Amino acid sequence: MKKTETKNSAVLIENLDKYLDGKQILFGINLSIGSGEVFGFLGPNGAGKTTTMKAILGLIRPDAGTISILGDSTLSNETKEKIGFMPENTYLYKYLTGREFLRFNGKFFNISDTELDERIEEILQKVGLETAGDKLLAKYSKGMLQRIGLGQAIINNPSVVFLDEPMSGLDPIGRKMVKDLILELKKKGTTVFFNTHILSDVESICNSFAIIHQGHLVASDSVKNLDKPLEEYFIEKIHENTEGELEVC
Ligand SMILES: Nc1ncnc2c1ncn2[C@@H]1O[C@H](COP(=O)(O)OP(=O)(O)OP(=O)(O)O)[C@@H](O)[C@H]1O
Ligand SMILES: [Mg+2]
C-alpha cells in the first residue's frame, strides 16, 4: 500500500480533473477532509458532486490528479474494507428481502456469520426497517429503498463513509433518522463525506463543507467560520462564480 505523507487526512484530493464524453467536468479539484470529520459537499445540479465521489471511490478513472483515502492512494483491498458507500441511485436486487440484501452486501467483507447477523438486525433497527426486513425490495417504497441503501453503506462498520444525497426522497422522520445516524457515526470517529442540497443539515451536522460549481471548487471552509446563513453564502458564491468568471478557491 502506498502511503501519502499528509497526516490526519481521511480523504485527500489534489488537482483532480475529469473529462466525460470529451467535455471537462472537473477542473483541478482540491479537498482535504480530516479524520473523524463530517463533510458536506454542495453544489447545483450537474456541478460535479457525484462525479467527484465516483472518482474518489475508483468507480471512474481521474484524468489528472491524485486521490488518497486513509493515506492510501492505491485503493487497496485493505482500504476498501474500511469504506462504505451509498450511491445516488442504488442498484437494488428487487427479489431479495431487505435482510437478504444486507447479508449479500455484508458477504463482500471479512465479517463472521454471527457478527453479520447481529449487524443486520442492528442496522434494520437503525434505519427504521425492523418490521420490513423480510419484505421483498420490489415492495419497498422509495424512502424504504433509500433507507436500506444507507443500511448497506454501514454494514462493514466503515471508517470512512461516502453518501450521495442520503436525505433525498425521505420523509421528515427519515431525514431525522439519517441525521441522527450521521451524528452517531461522527461520535464514533467515522469520517462522513456526503453530497447534499439541504443546507440546514450541513449547518447542523457538518464540521466542514465545500461548494462546487460548473466543475470548479468555489468555496471550502469550516462550518464554524460562517458569518452568515449558509443559504446566503451559497447563493453569493454561485452568483460570484457564474458565467465564466470563476474565482476558484
Ligand atoms: N456518464 C456521463 N457521461 C457524460 N456526462 C456526464 C456523465 N455523468 C455525468 N455527466 C455530466 O457531468 C456533470 C456533473 O454531473 P454530476 O452527476 O457529477 O453532478 P451532481 O453535482 O452530482 O448533480 P446532482 O446534484 O444533480 O446530483 C453534468 O454536466 C453531467 O451532465
Ligand atoms: Mg449527484
How does this model look, in words?
The longest helix has 17 residues, at 172-188. This protein has a domain at 1-82 and 160-165 and 191-249: Rossmann fold, CATH 3.40.50.300. It is an alpha/beta fold and 249 residues long. The strands form two sheets. A six-stranded mixed sheet has the order 5-6-7-3-8-9, sandwiched between helices. Strands 2-1-4 form a three-stranded antiparallel sheet, covered by helices on one side. The chain has helices spanning 49-56, 77-80, 98-106, 113-126, 142-153, 172-188, 199-205, 230-240, and strands at 9-20, 23-34, 38-42, 64-69, 83-86, 160-164, 191-195, 208-213, 216-222. The chain is globular and about 50 Å long. A hairpin with a 2-residue loop joins β8 (208-213) and β9 (216-222). It binds adenosine-5'-triphosphate and magnesium ion (MG). Magnesium ion binds next to α1.
